[in-house]
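At this stage, I put together one protein's amino acid sequence and its backbone structure tokens, which the following lines show:
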Amino acid sequence: MRADRLVSLVLLLRRHGRMTAPALARELEVSTRTVLRDIEALSTAGVPVYAERGRHGGFALLPGFRTELTGLNHDEALAVLAAGSGRGEQAFGLGSALASALRKVVDALPEGHQATAGDAAQRLLIEPETDLLSRRTAAEEVPGTTMVEVRRAVLAGRKLRIHYAAADRAPQWRTVDPIGLVTVRDRGYLLATRSGADRTYRLSRILAAEELPEPAERPDRVDLDRIWRERCAAFLSDDQMTVLVRVNPERREQLLNTALAVRAEEPDADGRLRLEVTFQDARHAEWALWQLDTDAEALAPQSLRAALRDRAAAIAACYGSSAGV
């Protein structure tokens, strides 16, 4: 870990020219005292870093010093910089690692291209926190220490003990064999097996985790994309409600944000869209379609149409009454 930090320190100095110890400490997420020790270690190792005194002083590298290039071309570097421009930097607790990688990417470019790539990356934004309707899509929070244990067990191929809070249940400890990690629309999942049975755990519901020394029971090679598709199909085959609905195209995204899945979609004759979507249960479907008012109409099942009609009648009766306050 310290070697990576020393490299990041050199790259920060190369990029900014001169930085104070407190500024370096903030970037590297360490104490000022640690930065001073790292500066001393770099000097001992022959890296030409020196201190400039005064109000505008700080630490800097001798002009012309350059670290080894990685061989990235301009488009490869731009791809990595663009990936770091959105909220993906928080995926699986790798934010600080990505920040370090981005510094190395910038430093890997020829000096004449560094500013160009940086400016280009600023013009590419991936997955902002709000959409055009100002709806916030905040990512789920996972404690850093928990994420480190989960990630380490997944990558090392060891069993994992987790304190998991399933929906509507008291948290319980369980030991699993981790297979991989998946992030979908700012939600992270742990794919695992437990006593040989497939299990999928929401990362935000893991309250604590502990990597165990025993090797996990899992194949050496894995097709995570295939496993995720299979688990999605199995999830949708449970006791859920599939609804046929006509919706105003302008409200399509709002509908999809509440549905579990879209099974089919086609334009309707009057300019609306006809979709077959899946909800968790009847109550979930009724709530989701009620939010869309007259911009959505449930065509099937009949039980859902009846529930929405009864709800509308109850509202109309309430507000149609002459009673006052």
In short: The mean pLDDT is 78.
